[in-house]
Amino acid sequence: MADRRPMWENLGMDLEAHDQLCAVLPVAFGDIYLSQENRPENMAFYDMVVADIHGIRPQELLDAQADGRKVFGTFCVYVPDEVIIAADGIVTGLCGGSQFWVPEGEKVLPKSMCPLIKASVGARLGRTCPYFRVADMYIGETTCDGKKKAWEILGEDVPMHVMDMPQMKRPRDHEKWVGEIEDLAGVVEETTGNEITPESLSEAIRIVNEKRRALSRIYEARKSKTIPISGKDALLVVQIAFFDDPERCAQMADKLADELEQRIADGVSVFPEGTKRIMITGTPMAIPNWKMHHLVETSGGAVVCEESCTGTRYFEHQVDNSADTLPEQYKALADRYLNINCACFTPNETRIEDIIRLAKEYDVDGVIDVHLKFCTLYDTESESVQDALKKAGIPVLALETDYDDSDAEQLRTRIEAFLEVLD
Question: Are 398 and 382 in contact (CB under 8 A)?
Fold first, then answer.
């Protein structure tokens, strides 16, 4: 593996603190992922990415910057990557899934804020995430009050553009979101120095649609009675998709999907016959947050679907690419992105409908509804989710957690009891 320390040093990272993170991650990944048996061969690519997760992609981003391209760091599935790609910009996800970053975040944020936001802010302020150091601009959005305040802090030393999310989905809210996408396009054009044309935006839409299509194939394979891939591995694929080059992401996802489809044809499963099929719903699980999947799949269950931003919300629904003018294309983008059903909206019956639909499509035996501690949106909506699932005759378990492992055994006890009830 290449020596990445000169790159990290040039990025102004805290090398001593970063060394501590680099010492922990391989051990955790080995215990959680490499201990699995009968994994698909094409997971080797994703293992390689994690092994050098703060090296390979950041170096690619730096090389692109040396060629004059701009890098945009994003936090949320509502930010339309297509607009950035159309101006020859590059999109990267930003870190926020580890307890390691939380203490730095708590220096400027209240402890009673969700760990995802605290970790994201801590990763930047603690100078231990190269993606935060590389990005020329951050694109935020107003999906919750915690994020709104976090953007103010992060925007103090890095250019920040915030998209104002509608809180409802009325016609006027669609019009508003079209305007927000147009505003983003103007900011991206100014930052990159490149004009967005109908042709470049159409090509960008095609690229991201292909990425969604390829990821959808993996999830289609998970609907099979023969489960060809663990939930942990499927989660990792989507987590890495936030950071990877979109065309390479589609190519590698297609290779993995080809293998999964062949496994199904050959009757090759990673779980014993009769293993209870579980869907996880709720808050995003940013890399390296693999806690819930690991607990479920080492307690006798199999995760076959995630209704979350690191699951179906990320890739469901294509953008209509038939328009040939920018106003029509921006409307098509708005239509697709407002079709994502996050707990930030009110009323939000469509998310409940999504959960019921997915539970049936993936033939699940039970649903685990998970929200991060202090995430008011998903915590509040959990009651409605549970009520709807019970009415539909689908067993459900609601859990609250954070990034710390101190509650792992308590959670395991509850998960094991839930699986026993399903039996």
Answer: yes
State pTM to two decimals: 0.97
CB-count burial class (<10 Å; 0-12, 13-18, 19+) for 162 = middle
Q: Report the alpha-carbon distance of residue 254 to residue 117 in Å, rounded.
A: 32
Q: What CATH code is assigned to 5-188?
A: 3.40.50.11890
The DSSP bridge partners found for residue 138 are 73, 160
Cβ atoms of 359 and 367 within 8 Å: the answer is: yes
Q: How would you classify the pairing of strands 276-282 and 90-93?
A: unpaired
Round to whole Å and give the CA distance between 252 and 273: 28
List the strands of the sheet with 137-141, edge to edge. Answer: 90-93, 71-74, 137-141, 160-163
Q: What is the pLDDT of residue 93?
A: 96
**Burial class for 218, CB neighbours closer than 10 Å (0-12, 13-18, 19+):** buried
Express each pLDDT in 79-125 by its tens digit.
999 999 999 999 999 989 999 999 999 999 999 999 999 999 999 99
Rounded distance between C-alpha atoms, residue 281 and residue 298, angstroms: 19
The amino acid sitting at 276 is K
Please report, in angstroms and rounded to a whole number, the separation of the first and last CA atoms in the chain. 46
Q: Are 85 and 91 in contact (CB under 8 A)?
A: yes
Q: Give Cα separations from 93 to 212, 238, 274 (angstroms).
A: 16, 11, 37
Q: 344 and 144 in contact (C-beta within 8 Å)? A: yes
d(CA 313, CA 307): 7
- pLDDT tens-digit series, residues 278-311: 999 999 999 999 999 999 999 999 999 999 999 9
Cα(58)–Cα(42) distance, integer angstroms: 23
Token representation of residue 77: 């599935």
Residue 290: CB partners within 8 Å, gap ≥ 6?
A: 28, 32, 33, 232, 235, 236
The pLDDT of residue 2: 82
